[in-house]
Amino acid sequence: xxWHRLAAxxxxxxxxxxxxxxxxxxxxxxxxAMMLLFGYGVNLDIKHIPVCVFDREGSQQSQDxxxxxxxxxxxxxxxxxxxxxxxxxxxxxxxxRVGLVIAHDFSERLRTGETASVQAIVDATDDxxxxxxxxxxxxxxxxxxxxxxxxxxxxxxxxxxxxxxxxDARTWFNEDxxxxxxxxxxxxxxxxxxIGAFLTSLTIAREWERGTMEQLISTPVTPLExxxxxxxxxxxxxxxNTALCAAVxxxxxxxxxxxxxxxxxxxxxxxxxxxxxxxxxxxxxxxxQLAASQMALxxxxxxxxxxxGFLFSIDQMPAVIRAITHVIPARYFVTILKSxxxxxxxxxxxxxxxxxxxxFAVALTLTATHSFKKxxx
Amino acid sequence: xxxxxxxVSVRDLVKKFGDFxxxxxxxxxxxxxxxxxxxxPNGAGKSTTIRILCGLLRPTSGTATVAGYxxxxxxxxVRQQIGYMSQKFSxxxxxxxIENLRFFAGLYNVPRDLAEKRIAWALAMAGLAGRERLIxxxxxxxxxxxxxxxxxxxxxxxxxxxDEPTSGVDPISRRQFWExxxxxxxxxxxxxxxxxxxxxxxxxxxxxxxxxxxxxxxxTPGELKKRAMKGELLLVECSPLGRAVxxxxxxxxxxxxxxxxxxxxxxxxxxxxxxxxxxxxxxxxDVTVHNIEAIPPTLEDVFVSLTAGRKEQA
Lengths: 377, 314
Fold this sequence. Notes:
heterodimer, A: about 375 residues, alpha/beta, abc type-2 transporter like fold, 4-stranded mixed beta sheet, 4 strands, about 65% helix, B: about 325 residues, Rossmann fold, 2 domains, 10 helices, about 35% helix, elongated
């Protein structure tokens, strides 16, 4: 192994990244763009659901109930209509997700102690939002219902009963229940997948495509020197981008960071090695830049997005898919990232994940080394 | 240099791709300081042979040694001893001239202090001194080829393999390029050059004519013109030319007839008897003969006569 040769390749690779506007764009702009896109754009918190109201009674009590909806941060009463077809139209035209219909005998039933009902029509195109909307509706209505009961008992001169069971919920790790705290750490895994696998997938394929590989392999350079020389710049760039994204997450998006930087960078380095190895291997077998870059996206970006627990909880996946996630390096990295940021877990608690990442790093780098041969055809 | 003393030695070399035999039992030797030409049409097996000699392809059978090292067994040692210029331009177009040179100096492990001298030498040789900062892709073809040669010999290899180094380059640059090759040969470097330009063969000390994977003739250009040609060559100026060629092809004693510029070339068994006979033969058939003379064959004539013979056998 000659450091001289390795340095020559690394320097050449760096110059080529610098001169190629696409690579440079991916290196300089993409990480920040992804942070902003996911930090601002992807919001799993469901608030301000638009509501259309058809109050058939218009009594003091029906208005009290609607006020509760209005003052909840989960709902916005956007429309008040005076006919059922108008309510349907509001939902059909997407102006409202929930239609509330208050019966004409609402206050009458409350007064006589009968159960009054409120009809909620929910647009369930997006089932997740619909479920949450139903839940929030129930909680608003049951709050109101409790109040009605308490008022009634007070009028009767009876003491106010305590509810039999109360849930005392404390939220840990993401105390404000903000989805950006859940999403932003995982973006690091996406950024590194793109830098690591997508960019490196081009490096060997590009040399074959442009015919420069033939000259390269006619020199005494060894396959290991080619691989390490080519990957070194991407490793450094990837780690710098990790630092940049972490900084943006912590200071711009104010995601708590409770773990140690050491754990963050150790796990990032291992994940980086794994994706670089994979990217290099794909570049060797892909032989054309187009084929290689597409393979790289399918092999790293998509799993990092869909199967890593970045957005979609692995526990909720069907058993088969859950099994598949075990061979996705990003799964372990995303777990580590979320723990390091939000929980502050140290190295000891993340042993299993770190070990898995280390195994992937070693296995994929070895595969990459062995895949590349200094032979034509 | 060790071994048998030849810089390149090839014995019964065969390379097959599936059913196709690209190189078919080739034998040749080159000595130190020799400019050895490998001449033949596209697809004859020139590039395949050169790639085997550079250790880029494994031979199917036979042996080849370069600077005394077996190319199949010690390809890495061979690579220390050679410079290679592939058929397609294969420097980095997005790098500056100086960056390409530094890159290859690094790959060949040229020590830093020596590297600067060698790079300065290569720039002067390629006529690129003062143009170090140009992006390689913007250079004209002739300069690119000279830069590629410069990159391939930064480590002062005893043997250089140049695969079609002058294809797609203007005639003046081609001549300059051959001068460079001879300059290096004068310093003891063996140059193994492939080309499909017949006129370039004259620049070689020795050459092999290759056709469909086989060497059909091997020797100095002079020897080939004398020995390899079956029969003698006549230049016939006459009119109408088209009909004359058709007639000549059927004339007794004529082995081959082809249009060559505004005249025709005939291959005949013996010039002394054929000239008067042809003059009569053509005149009787209403062809006006302006001139008939015996001429020395060009390598193209030799090549056509040799490969035409093989086609008949095939």
